[in-house]
Amino acid sequence: MLAQSKVSPEEDASCFVQPSQETIDVVENISAQAGKRLVVLMNPQWRNSDDAFDKASKEGGFLGGLASFLGGKGGAIKRLEEMNFESSFTIEGYVCRGRNVRMVKRFDSNWIVFSEEESTSSFLNVGSSKTRPTYQEIDSMLEENGIMTNYLGSLGRN
Fold first, then answer.
1. Distance CA 124, CA 54 (A)
2. What pLDDT is attached to residue 144?
């Protein structure tokens, strides 16, 4: 999507909705053409967790190139870093200790971690981290807050 300013082309903005590794060439081309204009990647479709190809693709060399060709995200991530893309607002979620967990990061803040409360479906702030917290760090935050493992998960919920 392209939003064009009536005032000046320097105020134009481009937005890629759900870009994938396969569209990184287009993102790179538009970014080069845009110069200092805003380019947004909304809801990118690469995972934050790494599979074997992702890990190998970050290593570089022949095997890294092969892993990128076979679907590893390392090459795409490196290219975005070279283009100076930065995360400005991120919400991620998964299940830890049988509970829904959400991590929120704004460009000028630390990562904030929330855990869903069983009885109210509201979220409790359980901690923060300067870097993206690992699963193990979130598990420790839950333990420090006295949040026990919910072995039944969402089985009893409507």
1. 32
2. 95
